[in-house]
Amino acid sequence: VGVAQVTETAKPKDSCFCHNEDGIIIMENGLLKVTIDQTGRLMSLLLLQANRETISEGHLGNQFALFDDVPLYWDAWDVMDYHLQTRKPAVEVIEPAKVVRSGGLQGSVSFSLRISGKSTIKQEILLDACCPYIKFNTHLVDWEESHKFLKVEFPVQVRSPNASYEIQFGHLQRPTHRNTSWDWAHFEVWGHKWADLSEHGFGVALLNDSKYGYSIHENIMTLSLLRAPKAPDANADMGSYNFTYALMSHTALFKNASVIQYVYNLNFPLHVFHGIIAEPWNAFSVNCPAVILETIKQKAEKNALLIRLYESHGSSVTMTLSTSLPMQESWHCDLLERPDSSIPVSNTSSGITLTFKPFQIRSLLLIIQ
């Protein structure tokens, strides 16, 4: 967490696009090669370094699908498994896919689809230079449905009995099969910013900035986008929406492939300001990739900050929290942010040394001079 001056010197490998004679669009940034059809669906997502195809053979990724969503009892709360029998792919093109930007540090392709007689969607597919994932910036122009459920699907070339999902301050696994009634009950599950399906040596992560429903059945990764319940509010969720999701292929375990760090980058992008600074300034930094600095909060006292960190990999680690702020005192806190003097804080010349057990949360109260 800080600020640094960046001068544009040598450019990274440019993102580039080209059309073939059939109107198929190819995006490439040196890490990924993406092939897109005229409806905005992914025909191919090739991880170049490993020469590994992500999209399942004979299938298309980024496929929007609309479902009938009529629960037995509670419209806004329940989702019934029988809605899966009503799948209707959205394939009616309003504007076919076209290149918006080519070359430079970012390339993009845009298209729009009609979801139904009432609702339309416009999307911009973005590929940044040196970025290991492809982004889908989505604008739902008009969502005026009744008892419908919109999802987007990615059939991938991965086979695994379990998928991993982020929860607050950690992650857990759920089955991708429906062998038992308990497994079947996971036809729709919740998660936070990412879900990952991995086998030995290869995996795919589905990242997002604001959606919390997932379904991963066998090799099909699905993100729930919008519902249209009519009770208790007949106008719930109607209108226009903007959201972003992304697809990331990787060759290591998601923990070692920095999936968690990249999803934080997606949700909290760098801010660029024009100006000159004397030297780089770093308010806080951590020296362990497994530990996430999740919260920096101003306390009621003007000279006090609340810092919250957590261990994200499920491992036991020791790390150092460094700061350039003039720190006067530091205290461990509980989750109610009450200082706990019974736990000493280990201050060294390089910062505060902390030990974490798997998924442990630690809170610190810092008094600044």
From TrEMBL:
GO molecular-function terms, A-Z: alpha-mannosidase activity; carbohydrate binding
Every Glycosyl hydrolases family 38 C-terminal domain range: 290-364
Domain Glycosyl hydrolase family 38 C-terminal: 27-234
Annotated GO biological process: mannose metabolic process; oligosaccharide catabolic process
InterPro entries: Gal_mutarotase_sf_dom (IPR011013), GH38_C (IPR041147), Glyco_hydro_38_C (IPR011682)
Name of the protein: Mannosidase, alpha, class 2C, member 1
Organism, as annotated: Sinocyclocheilus grahami (Dianchi golden-line fish)
